[in-house]
Amino acid sequence: MPRSRSRSPPPRPSNSTSNSYRSNRSPPRGGGDRDRGYTAADREREAAGNRRKYDERSDRDRRGGGGESGSGRRDAREGGPVMKEPSPPPAAKEAAKPNFGLSGALAAETNTNAAGVTLKYNEPPEARKPSLNWRLYVFKGKDQVDIFHIHRQSAYLAGRDAATVDIPIAHPSCSKQHAVIQFRLIRHRNEFGDESVAVKPFIIDLDSTNGTFVNDKEIPASRYYELKASDVLKFGQSTREYVLLHEEAA
Description:
Blueprint: H1 15-24, H2 31-36, H3 40-64, H4 71-77, H5 104-110, E1 134-140, E2 143-149, E3 155-159, E4 167-168, E5 179-189, E6 195-205, E7 212-214, E8 217-218, E9 224-226, E10 232-235, E11 241-246
Parallel strand pairs: 3-4
Antiparallel strand pairs: 1-2, 1-11, 3-5, 5-6, 6-9, 7-8, 7-10, 10-11
């Protein structure tokens, strides 16, 4: 039978070899500081550095004005939150324009006569003095009792207040300021485009209690009603008739 061969164990490394192997191993990464651990002093130093960086960045933002080159863009580059630009304020509502028109009280003060009585009527811009000599003949029954020449001014106020009106009406059914005869400049254009102007008489009832009548027909209140030669006017329940004529009327 063949003889078995005995295997001898491998030689053990000498102490010198083991020591050289341990000495040739490189130290772990991070150095000896990390081996010692992260101490409270390290945390304090890191916190102080972070505060210093924050203060420096805040100073730069204040100096830069905070626009596109300010904090919004810088925070985005450094990884911080993107600061949105503030939205413009809502447009202010247009302020109400001042009203320089006359108030009721002021208008009343500027429309008074010499006796301090407030007049109910203002003449329109087209008011004009007539070129014809208009007259108002007053009849009581068949008798003429008075005459008014109404061509010397552009408007004549009729009513019961004798101290205020131009044409006094004594009847108790009439209002103190009853009606106005107003001469107005009227423009007329014919079918061929030719324009003509004329000063014509109108009457307007001032919201009287018992109305104004032209040729026995009551006229609307607060509206101009054109008059013609030979028209007959009545005021309230008075029986007196006021006949309108001018010098050229037949």
